[in-house]
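Ticket #4471: complex job returned nothing on first submit. Input attached below:
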Amino acid sequence: MLRAQGKAVHQCDSGWVPVFVDQEQSISLMSVGFLLENPDEAVVWRGPKKSALIKQFVSDVAWGELDYLVVDTPPGTSDEHMATVEALRPYRPLGALMVTTPQAVSVGDVRRELTFCRKTGLQVMGVVENMSGFACPHCAACTNIFSRGGGEELARRAGVPFLGSVPLDPELSRSLEEGRDFIQEFPKSPAFSALTSIAREILNATPALLS
Amino acid sequence: MEEVPHDCPGADSTQAGRGPSCQGCPNQRLCASGAGAAPDPAIEEIKEKMKTVKHKILILSGKGGVGKSTFSAHLAHGLAEDENTQVALLDIDICGPSIPKIMGLEGEQYVEDNLGVMSVGFLLSSPDDAVIWRGPKKNGMIKQFLRDVDWGDVDYLLVDTPPGTSDEHLSVVQYLAAARIDGAVIVTTPQEVSLQDVRKEINFCHKVALPVIGVVENMSGFVCPRCKKESQIFPPTTGGAEGMCQDLKVPLLGKVPLDPHIGESCDKGQSFFVEAPNSPATLAYRSIIQKIQEFCTPRQPKEDLVSS
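Support reply: We reran it on our side without changes. The output follows.
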C-alpha cells in the first residue's frame, strides 16, 4: 500500500534498517513482507514464531529518532497482540486506536478488543468508524452500505473518544492499490477530510496521553 | 496443554524440550521424551467422529473484513433450505466469534432442525468478554470442537476460520487429516491488496494438500439504489478475482455485489435470502452454493448410468 514492495531490508551496526517510503524520509516501514522471497509465499507460522519476530521488529530494528511508531495488527486478541503489548511496554505506548465498520457484527468484535486493552493496561486513544457511508459519484445519494453509527455508539458506551467516521471512497482504494499518496492527490475527497481530522485529533491529544 | 513459553520451539520441533526457553516449562519432560513428535491420538478419534459427516468444507480468506463469516453463514442457510440436508457450521474464529450473532443465536445451537452451529461465542458469558489466548490454547479448543461435539449425521460440516494462515488453519487441517476435507472456499474482495493475500491462501492450500473448491469475489460492485448506476467501490485494479483465478487455474465460483441489506440481515441475525430473495446478491449466492454442491457431489457420468 505504501509502494514499497520488492524493497529489501539491510543490516547496519544497530540492527535492521527500515525501508523509507517517501523522498523526504519521513515515513519508514518494517514488515514481514520484506523478508519473503516470493510475495505469494504463505507465512504459515504458529504463534510462538510470530511472537518472536514481533519482538525482533521492536528491539532489532534501527528505527532512529521517531515521533510516532504506528503498529498495524491483524484482527483478534491473540499472539500478535500480546507480543506487541509486551514488546512495547517498556517504551510506554501512547495507546490503541480501534477501527471498526458501522455494523453490529463488527462492533461486536471491537468490544472484545476494548476488553483486551483494559486487561493489558493499554490506553484506548479512540474509535474510528471506517467504511461509513458511500456517496454515489453519479448522483451523490448517500447509502449506508455497512449500516451506520455503530462506531460512535460503541465509543459512547465504552467512554472513549470517538475520533471520526471515514466514508467509503473508491479513489482511496485505488490509491492504496497503486501505492499513490491519497492525501496529496485527493484533497477534496470526504475521506481525505475525515482522515486528516483524525490525524489532527491524535496530534492534539498526544501531550495529554504522554503525561 | 498449559501455557507455553514465549520462545517455545514447538512441540514437534527437534529442539522440543531441549531448547533454552524450555527450562521451567510444565511440558518440558513430555516434549523431551519425543511425545510431541508422535501423532496426536485425537486425529484417529476425530476420524471416527467424522464418519457420520459426509462433506467437510473450510471457508478461508487471506484478509479480514472481506465477508467470510457472512458467506459461511449464508452458505449454511442455503444448504439447509433443503430440509433433508443436515448442515453444521463450526466457527473456529476463537478471538472474533461472529457466527452466533450472524445466525441470530444467543445460546441455543440450532437455527433450524437441520442447521446447527458451534462457536466459542456460546461459551462466553458477556459480549464484552475477550478471548486472549495464544496459539496452543486455541488449538486445544479446536481439537475439542472436532472431537468432543456430538456431530451426528451431517451432510455438510462448514468450518468458518479467522483470516490468515496460522494456528487455527494448521490445526483444523491437521486434526481433520485422517478424515478427508472436501476442499476450501476462499473469499476475497476485488482489490489487489486482498488478492495478494488470497494467493498466499492458495499457496497454503497447496502446501497442506487441501483441494481448492474455488474463489468467491465479494463486495463486487455496488448499484446505487437511487440512480441504479454501478460503482466499483473496491476497484479490481489488477483484474479482480477473475484475472487471478485464470492465472492460477482455480475456479471462480462467483461474484457477489455489495448490498446494504446483507449487513442489515447479519446484524439482525436473519438470512439475507429471506429478507431479499430477488436481490442480485441472493442470486449470486445461490449460483455459488450450487457450484459448491456440485463439487462435493459430482453427478455420475451418463455412460455409467446407462450401464448400471
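The two ends of chain A are 33 Å apart (CA to CA). Closing as resolved unless it happens again.
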